[in-house]
Design a protein that fits this description.
- The protein is of the alpha+beta class.
- Among the domains are: about 65-115; about 120-195, 2-Layer Sandwich (Ribosomal Protein S8, Chain: A, domain 1), CATH 3.30.1370.
- The protein has 4 helices and 10 strands.
- It has helices spanning about 10-30, 70-80, 120-135, 165-175, and strands at about 65, 85-90, 100, 105-110, 110-115, 140-145, 145-150, 155-160, 175-185, 190-195.
- A 3-stranded antiparallel sheet has the order 2-5-4, with helices on one face. A 3-stranded antiparallel sheet has the order 6-10-9.
- A hairpin with a 2-residue loop joins β4 and β5.
Length: about 200
């Protein structure tokens, strides 16, 4: 009498899984990280390439959008290094084709482009508040140019003492008085608050 063997779908799948598991194990045993050549950081040797000898049209990017936040990371590192909240594009060697930043506002002033942080520097705002209060309680107007210069890696960069979010916050605190922000004929950005009620 002939013996019949029944096989279920579970038996087939179990066999498939065990075969795949063995193949993965064999692969892991054969190809370890020790067998791979991994370049260590700092172990780069640039190969000279004479691109000027090639008659090719240079690519021009129409726009650059900071979709992954890499450029904002650069600006945030510069904020930490300088203590500023308004960073010139030149300081970060950022291309002028950048049209959006992940976590910053692009601000153009005096022919220059800047990345403005949305973070409020409370210590800086508090110092402005104290100086404004001192002027107003003495009966004199507060009048200050926000243009400033910062030194970074032995180079001077023109920037602004406050970001848009910061000067908006300061002006909001003195909204009961005559406050305004304006640009002079000499391209100076001025914050003015008068000891007069609106």
């Amino acid at each position: 009498m002939e013996r019949k063997t029944s096989i279920t779908i579970c038996d087939v799948l179990r066999k498939e899984f065990s075969t795949e598991a063995e193949a993965i194990q064999d692969f892991e045993e054969e190809d370890t990280v020790d067998d791979l050549t991994v370049a260590e950081p700092g172990e780069q040797q640039e190969i000279p390439v004479d691109i000027m000898a090639v008659n090719a049209e240079a690519a021009v990017l129409p726009v650059i959008n900071d979709e992954h936040g890499r450029l904002s990371d650069i600006f945030e590192a510069l904020e930490t290094a300088t203590g500023q909240s308004v960073i010139p594009f030149k300081m970060g060697s950022i291309a002028p084709e950048v049209s959006s930043l992940a976590r910053h506002k692009i601000f153009e002033f005096g022919g220059e482009r800047y990345a403005m942080s949305h973070k409020l520097r409370e210590s800086v705002i508090d110092k402005f508040y104290v100086r404004i209060m001192k002027a107003l309680t003495s009966g004199i107007p507060f009048h200050e140019e926000l243009n400033t210069t910062v030194v970074y890696r032995d180079s001077d960069y023109h920037t602004l003492a406050l970001s848009e979010d910061e000067w908006t916050y300061v002006m909001a605190r003195f909204r009961n008085y005559k406050e305004k922000l304006y640009v002079t004929a000499k391209n100076k950005l001025v914050l003015e608050i008068l000891p007069e009620r609106k």
